[in-house]
Each structure stands twice: as structure tokens, then as C-alpha cells.
């Protein structure tokens, strides 16, 4: 493999309104965008093995730095020469930086009062955010650990994913402006330290493979802070040339209206030639469609597998008709940016398989779905039984379906956008 082909590359292939079609090249293969990335927190997409994940047509999966650092630990990952070999997955992978855990364990520092009210005082001692990093107690055994930007990069080098993230503080929306500004300045300092640590190691993993580093735009729901962060992460004010741009924060993916607002504030500052990753977005099918039409390329969320385990299964189809009909007037901007809809007879596009009405329903989950579960003839009736009896095969069959639905949505959107002239 030549030096060039083993590096990271993103090519933008088409733009329709704000929606984009692109292709990422990584040392472990190509990824067509837009793309949904299933989440494999502990180097496992819960209840699925690597063959199952591949069968869902997943092109890239995500693993979590904080969790892999605690278990199995970097020594074991070193022993396997990285997470790809460890979990027998030879396709592209992305790791977060552990920054989200800073947020979830350290939230009390900005909303202490709220936590005390909730009687959640135990959490108060779990994490301490300082200028140089975060000290936290393991959720497993209470042992103390410190993450600094350099440490977050080193752990991600030991994990060996194709795309890694800078260490940041995921800012809660309710943070007062003064704290938000302070936090953002720190996130920017940490981003520079991550960038320098990445450069110091030749941008390579512990095993010599190229790792793309993404910068994360934070700033909560403060438009001026979001814009400041966008200017920093895109290199305008920092001079840092990240391989991709992520947008993080409590709102992203959780509140789609807020997500749209954030994108509106920063969109003009984002370079077209870099991939745009909406972190934690992709709970509902319509969320993915909305985010693609906001101009994002990459998405991840634990929602599809978590919902599957809880009996909530996606059923529906994308309706492109409105947009196809409107495309007759090609010069009309509104027509080309018209958004398809995920149409379902169920609220939020999900049925609840535990409902007694499915006990005798012999249909597959979804006629429109080409996943293993639907195409092999498993009925709603059988899945209802497996779910009610908590049979282990339920979790696998249900997760395969929900993951495939989300990946198929990004595939269908890609094809649809490509067909536009
Ligand atoms: Zn299916």
C-alpha cells in the first residue's frame, strides 16, 4: 500500500441544496457518506458479532475510549495490535475521546444544585474538571484516573481506530454563559494540545496506521460561542487543520430543532471539503433524514440498539415522492432542498413488539426491510414471543433489524441525492 492510499481522504461528490454525498478513504477501507455508524461501546455492538454487523452493511462502527480504557485496557489492545484485530472487524472504526464521559460524570460542577435536588449526591464526587484535564472515579470500582488531552490521544493511538476525536468538554445547554465561555476556551486549548500530540506521533496509531483527527465544535446554545468554536476548529483562528469537523453538545441529536439552529449559526463557516459529523445523532429515522438535509455527513447513536432491546422496532419507509414531484422545477431552490419523510403507521416510526396485538401477527417486522431478520422469515409473532420470554436471540434479531433500517436510510438518501440532476 502506498503512503498516500493508507491515509485519510474525503471527497465531496455531490451537493443538493444543503445535503451532501461524499466518500471517505481510511486505512481500513472506504466509507460512503451520508453514513450511520452503529455504536460498539466496548468493542461490541451489543448482542451482535462482527459478522452480524457486517451483514447490516455497516461501513464503519464506533467504539468508546473511556470504556475500552477501563476494560479490557490498553495492554490487551496492544497485545492484539489494536481494536480491529481484537474484535475481528477489519473495516473502518472511529473512537470518541472520552470527553462525553467528562460531561456525564462531571456535570455536577455546573448544575450541582439540580443534582442535589434529585438526591444524586453520590455523583458529586465522581469527576473533577481542571485546566490540564479531568480526574474521575471509574464507574466500575471507584479507582481514580486522569485524562489529559495527551492521554486521550495516547489511548486512542493504542485502540488504533481510523478516525479519532479531540478531547473536549461536552457543554450542557443550561451552563451559564460565563461558564460556557470558560469551558469553550479550555476545549480549544485541549484541541490544540491534542493536535500537537497527534502531530508529534506522525498522526499514526501505535501500530503505524494513519489516524484522522476530528475537531469538535462546542459552545452550547450560545450562537456567538458556537461561531467562535467553528472558526477555531476549521482552522480560521487556530491554524489547526483537522481531517474532519464534528459538532457536539447536549442538544445535538437530542433536540433536532436545536441541532438545526446550531447548524444554521455555523454552516457558512464549515469548509465544504471536510466531513461533518453530528455526534450522538440518529435515534429516529426522521432524525437522520433531517440531519442529512441540514448538511451533516456522519451520525452515531446508541438509540437503535437500545430501543431494539427495549422492544421498540423501526417500521416504515422513506417517502421521496414529494421531493421527486417538486424536482420538476429544478431552478426552484425550495424544490431541490425539499426533505423526504419517513412514513410509518406507528408514532416516531417504531412499533412496540411487546404489544399483545403482535402475538398472532405472521408478517415480518417490515416488508420494506432487507435485513437478516426480515428476509429470513422471522414473524412479528415469534419476535413478540422471544421478547416476552427474554430469549437471548431476541436481542440479536431485533438489533440487526434496527441497525439495518438506519444504515439503509443513509444508503437510500445517498442514492436519491445522486439521482438528482
Ligand atoms: Zn428488518
Key features?
single chain; 39% helix; binds zinc ion; three-stranded antiparallel sheet; 18 strands; 421 residues; six-stranded parallel sheet; alpha/beta; globular
Structure overview:
- Helix 10 runs parallel beside helix 11 and helix 11 runs parallel beside helix 17.
- The protein is an alpha/beta fold and 421 residues long.
- The strands form six sheets. A six-stranded parallel sheet has the order 4-14-13-12-11-10. A three-stranded antiparallel sheet has the order 1-2-3. The protein has a three-stranded antiparallel sheet with strand order 7-8-9.
- The protein contains 17 helices and 18 strands.
- The chain is 39% helix and 18% strand.
- About 7% of the residues have low confidence.
- Strand 13, helix 11 and strand 14 form a beta-alpha-beta unit.
- The longest helix is centred in the last third of the chain and has 28 residues.
- The relative contact order is 0.13.
- The structure holds zinc ion.
- Zinc ion binds next to helix 15 and helix 17.
TL;DR of this structure?
Helix content is 39%, strand content 18%. By secondary structure, it is α/β, with parallel strands linked by helices.
